[in-house]
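Fold it.
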Amino acid sequence: MGWIIGIGFVVILILLIVIAVFIITTYNQLVKARNKVKNSFAQIDAQLQRRFDLLPNLEETVERFASHEKKILQNVAAARSGYMSTNVAKEKLAMNNQLTSTLKSLFVLSEHYPELKANTNFVKLQEELSETEDKVTFARQFYNDAVTIYNNKLQMFPANMVAGMFGFHEEELFNVVEEVREAPQLFDDNDLTDEERERYPLKCPHCMGVLDGTRNCPYCGARVV
């Protein structure tokens, strides 16, 4: 009888050791996968930081030539402020998407301001922002791959049990915003003071004639608003 109890004890001990080894191994694999996600995001964050560091110069340049585009400038400032005020990856990515959408609108609007479009500093900033965005896109691919592998581990049995025990949670993919499909509206002339209206007359992008507030240019007849 004693030897039966002894065998049972050994079997239970072996099972406990196997379970412990499984838990430790799975935990370490999950930590490794999570660290890879963090490292991949750090690569993105470095490029995002560079991108947002360019914004004060961009805002100053746009202010010189199109200061009445208040909404665009406010959106750029809001995205920069939101990014700088958080350390949460999800929120940083959201601010980057907001900035991307705003910059697309800004660059479309710049077509209506020849002086701004031709400004050397503005052109350089466009190139630097575009280059940084390309680097973000490249880093995003590695980040999303790391997130997918990590999330798959969390969802598969029996690793999901270990993940639940130690509080591992899924990470979100870095999804990009859709392209701007329509050109943004120019500023509303009614929002300007008389002084601003005189200083910054709205011009036709086709013939550069000063507009009179109607939807068609009084000089070339082009529809502009």
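Residues 179-192 have pLDDT under 50 and may be disordered.
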